[in-house]
Amino acid sequence: MKSPSGRKRWNVLGAVDFETKQLVTVTNETYITSTTVCELLRVLTTQHPDKPITLVLDNARYQKCKLVQELADKLHIELLYLPAYSPNLNLIERLWKYVKKRCLNGKYYETFAEFQAGIQDCLNRINTDYHDDVETLLTRKFQLFDKQTFLAA
């Protein structure tokens, strides 16, 4: 299988609205940092100026830093941090897995620009062509272990 040479990156940081399934993203070609998270917070408040926002986050250092927390307070965004090592509880992780499956698995992009365009095309189609998939994927159905027997190994 062909694979690209070089080491370029294209980061997508996103938030998905649980009710509408609308996706908001910010991208860069460097690294995801606290300033990237702050950029996402600003975009969210611009797109939803009169709605209360609760953003579910994992425990990445750049998401829990003072800069992000202060801006969230200023913008009246509640930050809800998931327990450590629980990406299965974060709906956006389900979406990222779907996007990777849809536009990266088994696909070769000749150029970096084509790679970016392939991912962006997939993201743009989340609420149109892939709507039915996303509706079944982004639910509040989580596996619970209330009545299970646990064995330590």
Report on the structure:
With 153 residues, the protein is α+β, with helices and mostly antiparallel strands. It has one domain (11-137): Ribonuclease H-like superfamily/Ribonuclease H (Nucleotidyltransferase, domain 5, 2-Layer Sandwich). The chain is 40% helix and 14% strand. The protein is built from six helices and four strands, in the order E-E-H-E-H-H-E-H-H-H. The chain has helices at residues 34-47, 61-64, 66-75, 91-103, 112-124, 131-137, and strands spanning 11-16, 23-28, 53-57, 77-81. The strands form two sheets. It has a two-stranded antiparallel ribbon with strand order 1-2. Strands 3-4 form a two-stranded parallel sheet. Strand 1 and strand 2 form a beta hairpin. Helix 1 runs parallel beside helix 3 (66-75) and helix 4 crosses helix 5 (112-124). It is globular, with a radius of gyration of 17 Å. The mean pLDDT is 88.
What does the average pLDDT come to?
Answer: 88
CATH T-level fold name: Nucleotidyltransferase, domain 5
Spatial order of the strands forming the largest sheet: 1-2
- Tell me the strand percentage band: 5-15%
Judging from the principal axes of the Cα atoms, what is the shape? globular
**Radius of gyration, whole Å:** 17 Å
Biggest sheet layout: 2 strands, antiparallel
Count of all domains: 1
CATH H level, superfamily name: Ribonuclease H-like superfamily/Ribonuclease H
Q: Count every helix, treating DSSP H or I runs of 4 or more residues as helices.
A: 6
The low-pLDDT segments are none
